[in-house]
Structure formats: structure tokens, C-alpha cells
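Reply to dn_fold:

You asked what the input looked like. This is it:
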Amino acid sequence: MNRAQRRKQNFGKQAKRNKKHKSFHASVPMLVNRVVNDNIEGKEELAMVNAFLFGTAQQSDYDYLVRMANMLNIAAKYKGAENLKPTVDAINFLAALILERYQRTGKFGVDSEERDALRSLVVFYDAFWKRQTTNLYNDCVAELNEFYDEIKERRAA
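and this is what came back:
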């Protein structure tokens, strides 16, 4: 049997074999994901900055700031990116200042320098996640949620 005959004989089998292939889930970049979802997270981040700016910030706004730092910490661990450490340290320092002011005055708020730092950190955070894959973001969210669940369990015990 020559090559042409083998091709002709296997043609139907090959078509059936191709139907058995499993499809795989492709990960879209976060830039596309954020644009498709109308940049919901970006709006939440800006709302958090405005809450601190206008003195209407609550515990949830502070928690969001800490969440941003934790997400970057986890992303740095996954990517092995040491260049994220200064940004995470800046967020942690800013969060410590805000917490200190809250303990002193009973209000979450920022001064003008802290406001500018907060805005630049939010811009950096947004730009960083737009360059990453959705899978990395989802993995970081899952790990962060596990971490928060562990904390809840410890507090309940």
C-alpha cells in the first residue's frame, strides 16, 4: 500500500480522532478582563481613595488597602518579583499611618502627602494587574481568601 492509499484509508479515522480532542480554557489578559468588566475594580480602588480623601472612610476601605498589599505580596511570591517589595512596603507603611491616626482620632483619614501616595499606589496596582494574566490574579485571590478563612477559623477557636 502506497502513501496515497494510506492517506485515503485513514482520512475518515483522522476526522473522528480529531473530534475527541478536549478544548482548553485560555486565559485572557487582565487588561481585557478589566475592560470587559467595565473596570469594576478600578472604580472600587478610586472610591477607596476618595473615601480617605473626604474623611468618609470606614473599616472596609482600610481593609481594601490591606488587601491590595496582600495581593501584591502573593503575586511577588508567584512571580519571584523582588521589584514589588518596595511598593508593598510603601502600602504597608501608609496603612500603618492610617491605622495610627484612626487609633488617635477615631477616624480614617489622610493628609495631602498620604493622599498623593495613596493615589499613586492605586495607579501602580491597577497598571500592575493589567499586565498580568487572569490566571495569576485568580490564583492570588484564591490564596488570599484561604488566608482570610484561616484567620477567621483561628479567631473562632
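Residues 17-24 have pLDDT under 50 and may be disordered.
Hope that clears it up.
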